[in-house]
């Protein structure tokens, strides 16, 4: 929607280092776009809730399969190439190093355990093995890249002229953001003003909502398969799509500028880390499987979650740890 000529950012706002972000003119420029997004997201979320809670998505499941989901997810990612290319083009060397580190940590160092200090009731202070590179490959790569940029900034290896190539890779280009931000801020509905609605914006967000629903269905099935659960029934998919629509409605009301949906990267994290919450018997792993227990006086209120990891070559999970609440 923001790629339309009406909502393209003015030329004078493109260079963030030359803009006074606290000026009323700049504030109005981005807030009116947020208000337009708010109205479009809230209307489109009503469509998603109608499709989910009415059971229509369950009826359409007969037409949604792998040949429908795969092209949809691919088409959703295609528009991101421009943004990724523009952001990586700030400094291709730093971008290439970040990609290399992500691949290195997630694919080649994932089985290396890092000893970390742990305190327990039985063993007191001792060290335990933690697969750091397997759990935080992206975060570690970003931290290493940022530290390198910080060193290059302190040593003035990166150019200090705003128009020079690689200037935006410096870590001090937006150093005043933290100093200007308030210490505490409480968001509330309508914080950017009254949301506005346009037909073009609504149809654009509805198209994104449709592709999001198709992608979410694929995420539900992929997550169930990774954790060893049976395929989700139609009524569960209906509720999931409906709740996602409700989340989009709340996000639009609060003015976050985006909707809510199932996160495909988290589904991939299940396959990488092989860690999930499962039933105490560890015979069937589910994302959250509460076990209700009855106390001596008849109270029912104790739930049990078991954290366990399963080797891909083994049928039964290992390393189960009970957590009682």
From TrEMBL:
One of its GO terms (cellular component) is membrane. This is Solute carrier family 23 member 2. The keyword Signal does not apply. Belongs to the nucleobase:cation symporter-2 (NCS2) (TC 2.A.40) family. Keywords: Membrane, Transmembrane, Transmembrane helix. The keyword Transmembrane applies. It is found in: Membrane. The chain crosses the membrane at residues 40-69, 89-109, 130-154, 192-210. Its main location: membrane. InterPro entries: NCS2. It is a multi-pass membrane protein. PANTHER family: XANTHINE-URACIL / VITAMIN C PERMEASE FAMILY MEMBER. One of its GO terms (molecular function) is transmembrane transporter activity.
């Amino acid at each position: 929607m923001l790629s339309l000529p009406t909502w393209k950012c003015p030329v004078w706002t493109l260079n963030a280092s030359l803009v006074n972000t606290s000026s009323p003119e700049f504030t109005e420029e981005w807030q009116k776009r947020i208000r337009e997004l708010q109205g479009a997201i809230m209307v489109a979320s009503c469509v998603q809730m109608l499709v989910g809670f009415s059971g229509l998505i369950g009826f359409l499941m007969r037409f949604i399969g792998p040949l429908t989901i795969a092209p949809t997810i691919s088409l959703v990612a295609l528009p991101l190439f421009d943004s990724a290319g523009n952001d990586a083009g700030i400094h291709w060397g730093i971008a290439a190093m970040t990609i290399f580190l992500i691949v290195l940590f997630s694919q080649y160092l994932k089985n290396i355990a890092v000893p970390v200090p742990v305190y327990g009731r039985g063993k007191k202070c001792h060290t335990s093995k933690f697969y750091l590179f397997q759990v935080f490959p992206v975060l570690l790569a970003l931290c290493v890249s940022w530290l390198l940029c910080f060193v290059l900034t302190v040593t003035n290896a990166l150019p200090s002229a705003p128009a020079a190539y690689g200037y935006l890779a410096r870590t001090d280009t937006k150093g005043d953001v933290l100093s200007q931000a308030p210490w505490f801020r409480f968001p509330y509905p309508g914080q950017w003003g009254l949301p506005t609605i346009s037909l073009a914006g609504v149809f654009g967000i509805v198209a994104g909502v449709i592709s999001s629903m198709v992608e979410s269905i694929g995420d539900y099935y992929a997550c169930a398969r990774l954790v060893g659960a049976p395929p989700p029934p139609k009524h569960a998919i209906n509720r999931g799509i409906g709740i996602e629509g409700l989340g989009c409605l709340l996000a639009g009301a609060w003015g976050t500028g985006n909707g809510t949906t199932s996160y495909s990267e988290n589904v991939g994290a299940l396959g990488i880390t092989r860690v999930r919450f499962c039933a105490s018997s560890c015979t069937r792993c589910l994302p959250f499987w509460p076990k209700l227990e009855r106390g001596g006086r008849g109270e029912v209120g104790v739930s049990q979650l078991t954290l366990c990891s399963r080797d891909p070559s083994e049928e039964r999970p290992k390393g189960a740890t009970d957590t009682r609440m």
